[in-house]
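> example.struct
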């Protein structure tokens, strides 16, 4: 799956007054009506444990210039919120300023599969902006460019 080029996002949550967050690329769209997305978190991540307890999370889809944010939120045990600019969702969750999308979700289902906990989140709020996305492939970050090919008929 390392050869399956993905975009990069940060998932954030809050539990007992403490913010948690980590870099992910397991983000997938699941349903449109109602809007539901899915994320898959390794057992034992601080963010996953906090998310299990809180039942809410937010997603920040990173832009091409936010590689440093992706690295900051992937260092194990590292401080995540000491540096950087953050906005808040309506529900009060921290999201990354300048991210292409900021999405707030409530957990509607969750499963343990293998060594991961899979969360299904129903979207309760969303903001988005145009911009070049941050990509990840074979362990390296890069830019996901718009090649100006014809859009699919269902694109938005
Ligand atoms: C590009 C990228 C994508 C990642 N995607 C995931 C993911 O989808 N699920 C996961 O559990 N870890 C993923 N990781 C690893 C976590 O970001 C990393 O283990 C993090 O330190 C966990 O944070 P925490 O334990 O402090 O919450 C990814 C790392 C990178 C660099």
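> example.seq
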């Amino acid at each position: 799956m390392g050869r399956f080029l993905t975009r990069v996002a940060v998932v954030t949550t809050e539990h007992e007054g403490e913010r948690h967050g980590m870099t992910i690329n397991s983000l997938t769209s699941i349903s449109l009506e109602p809007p539901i997305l899915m994320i898959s978190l390794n057992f034992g991540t601080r963010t996953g444990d906090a998310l299990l307890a809180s039942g809410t999370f937010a997603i920040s889809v990173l832009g091409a210039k936010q590689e440093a944010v992706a690295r900051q939120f992937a260092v194990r045990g590292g401080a995540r919120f000491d540096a950087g600019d953050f906005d808040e969702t309506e529900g009060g969750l921290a999201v990354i300023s300048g991210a292409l999308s900021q999405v707030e979700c409530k957990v509607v289902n969750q499963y343990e599969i293998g060594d991961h906990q899979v969360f299904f989140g129903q979207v309760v709020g969303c903001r988005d902006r145009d911009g070049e996305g941050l990509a990840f492939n074979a362990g390296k970050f890069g830019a996901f460019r718009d090649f100006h090919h014809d859009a699919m008929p269902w694109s938005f």
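> remarks
The longest strand covers residues 101-113.
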